[in-house]
Design brief:
The complex is a heterodimer of chains A (473) and B (94). Chain A has a domain at 6-227: Amidase signature (AS) enzymes (Alpha-Beta Complex). Chain A is 40% helix and 13% strand. Chain A has helices at 6-14, 20-33, 45-60, 103-110, 153-160, 177-183, 217-227, 260-264, 269-284, 300-315, 334-345, 348-361, 366-390, 413-417, 424-429, 458-472; strands spanning 40-43, 72-76, 114-119, 166-171, 186-189, 209-214, 255-259, 288-292, 393-397, 432-440, 446-453. Chain B has a domain at 4-42. A two-stranded antiparallel ribbon of chain B has the order 1-2. Classes of the chains: A alpha/beta (473), B mainly alpha (94).
């Protein structure tokens, strides 16, 4: 039962072949057996079981239930639910219990989903390996010596370890897709604006998006349909929830673009071979593979470093030890509350990005770095717009390598960031993308394939992803 | 390139205290990052418009009507210190 997909478990629940209480208990047992993974910051066991019982009663009475009735879901620990701690895996928010609920969660709860836990993550979503978490690293369920990826490492590990049937993560530069690839599950970064961020702790507001992590693309499409749409509480949200599920799709005649310069840079043989083999499969289905020259993409990473750090520095200035969050005991005036609380409350990586961001936001550097990066952002956006005139979808590996070992890249931030080299450009351009398991490396580690779609091109993205998934079965 | 003096100034602006060890390591880290970011200068962007977030459709704005906001007690629930319905801080004006 634990290994069922979201769509399968919904069917079993609807046919009353299993009760929600049994489903939730099964997940709780799985969580208990795997505490060594450290994937969850909080387990909502009592509430989840109570909700499950209530839903079972309603189902027995024949009441109309939501699409996710009785299904346990994990949330990344930067997504607020009233009454459940939200820590962002930071000392700064260890005692924070939100007084309000994120719109994405309100939408899941409206479909009678059950929140079973809050997932560990890189501190304030800043990292690619889940090693910056104040609550400790998450182990990759596939092989415990390897990182689960980040920053939504706990969410991806939770799905790979069968703690729940879907999870939500957030993706600023690859934080949903890269851990999904490393853990062998599906992860989606929706188009910028497709999903509301109200109630999600902000990191880099011009890049952040919330999206699903699931076992299949079919599952991810269902969750996306539920959480997407315009929300008057997030001014940037402008999507709809018109996604059609389970459409017929054929690769015949579809033009699949591959960024040539990028592919040439892949040095990992397992990733290279997997990609060639999978592209061959698509070609056999009648897809036309088109080589694209997208040279500006190599500037996506430095652009990201500027925009994400500057916006993070600005967003994280709200943590002052006064309204909520950690306050140091060690102060004698107002100013020292700020200094002591922030210095004691934030970890090293968060401080590094605040310092870098504030440096680039100083009047002497603003033009040189921030405006420059926004200009390059325009070039990268244009590169994608031009590419999508020549093709329907773009395919890349999700990450240049499979998961790496703990500590391997911790001391080299630039090398660490290179694991996000294929995912970051998508955030910079605001497009939608999905990571799907594509195969295993010689060491048995998952390799993810990324499908990138135009702005609000989720329909074709999910249709193609599901068709690809069917090919692999 | 950023030097230790500049870094100290940025730390004050960021409301962060750095010890000697952190000063050295952040100086090193920030310079590595800036060095990498300098790659952007390879591109000529003189005639390029910057991207300013997503365009917001003004017609889509919600109606300007007052709605109840969060209850004061609820709002104060996460405050480290509170008194008489307000956030409490040390004396600022004598």
């Amino acid at each position: 039962m634990q290994k069922k997909t979201l769509v399968e478990i919904i069917e079993l629940l609807n046919k009353k072949q299993v009760s929600s209480e049994e489903v939730v208990s099964g997940c709780l047992k799985q969580i208990e057996k795997n505490t060594h993974l450290n994937a969850l910051n909080y387990v909502n066991s009592k509430d989840a079981l109570n909700s499950a019982k209530k839903i079972d009663e309603r189902r027995q009475k024949g009441e109309k239930l939501g699409l996710l009735a009785g299904v346990p879901i994990v949330l990344k620990d930067n997504i607020c639910v009233q009454g459940i701690p939200t820590t962002c895996s930071s000392k700064m928010l260890q005692n924070f219990v939100p007084q309000y609920t994120a719109t994405v969660v309100t939408k899941l709860l409206a479909e009678d989903a059950i929140i079973i836990g809050k997932a560990n993550m890189d501190e304030f979503a800043m990292g690619s390996s889940n090693e910056t978490s104040f609550t400790g690293k998450v182990l990759n369920p596939i092989d415990n010596e390897y990182v689960p990826g980040g920053s939504s490492g706990g969410s991806a590990a939770s799905i790979a370890a069968n703690f729940a049937y879907a999870a939500l993560g957030s993706d600023t530069g690859g934080s949903i897709r890269q851990p999904a690839a490393f853990c062998g599950v599906v992860g989606v970064k929706p188009t910028y604006g497709a999903v509301s961020r109200y109630g999600v702790v902000a990191f880099a507001s011009s890049l952040d998006q919330v999206g699903p992590i699931t076992k299949t693309a079919q599952d991810a499409a269902l969750i996306f349909k539920i959480i997407s749409g315009k929300d008057e509480l997030d001014i940037t949200s402008c999507g709809n929830s018109n996604l059609k599920l389970n459409q017929d799709f054929s690769f015949k005649g579809k033009k699949i673009g591959i960024p040539k310069e990028f592919f040439d840079q892949i040095t990992d043989n397992d990733v290279k071979n997997t990609m060639n083999q999978e592209l061959k499969k698509l070609e056999n289905q009648g897809a036309e593979i088109i080589e694209l020259s997208m040279k500006t993409l190599e500037y996506a990473m430095p652009t990201y470093n500027v925009l994400a750090s500057a916006e993070a520095a600005s967003n994280l200035s709200r943590f002052d030890g006064i309204k909520y969050g950690y306050r140091s005991d060690n102060f004698d005036d107002l100013l020292s509350i700020y200094f002591k609380s922030r210095s004691e409350g934030f970890g090293y990586e968060v401080k590094r990005r605040i310092l870098l961001g504030n440096y680039m936001l100083t009047s002497a550097c603003f033009e040189k770095y921030y405006i420059k990066a926004q200009k390059v952002q325009t070039l990268i956006k244009n590169t994608f717009l031009q590419a999508f005139e020549k093709c329907d979808l773009i395919v890349t590996p999700t990450s240049a390598t499979p998961a790496f070992k703990f500590g391997e890249k911790q001391n080299d931030k630039v090398a660490m960031a290179l694991s996000d080299v294929f995912t970051v450009p998508v955030n910079i351009a605001g497009n939608a993308a999905i990571s799907i398991p594509a195969g295993l490396s010689s060491k048995g580690l998952p390799i993810g394939l990324q499908i990138i779609a135009p702005h609000f091109g989720e329909q074709m993205m999910f249709d193609a992803a599901q068709a690809y998934e069917r090919l692999s079965k | 390139m950023i030097n230790q003096e500049e870094l100290k100034k940025i730390a004050v602006l960021s409301r962060l205290e750095l010890n000697e060890e952190e000063l050295i390591s952040f100086e090193n880290d920030l310079n590595k990052a800036l060095d990498y970011i300098d790659k952007l200068n390879e591109l000529d962007t003189n005639s390029v418009e910057p991207t300013y977030c997503t365009p917001i459709n003004v017609e889509d704005l919600r109606e300007d009507v007052i709605k109840p906001s969060m209850d004061r007690e609820l709002l104060l629930q996460n405050a480290p210190e509170q008194e008489d319905g307000a956030f409490k801080v040390p004396t600022v004006v004598e």
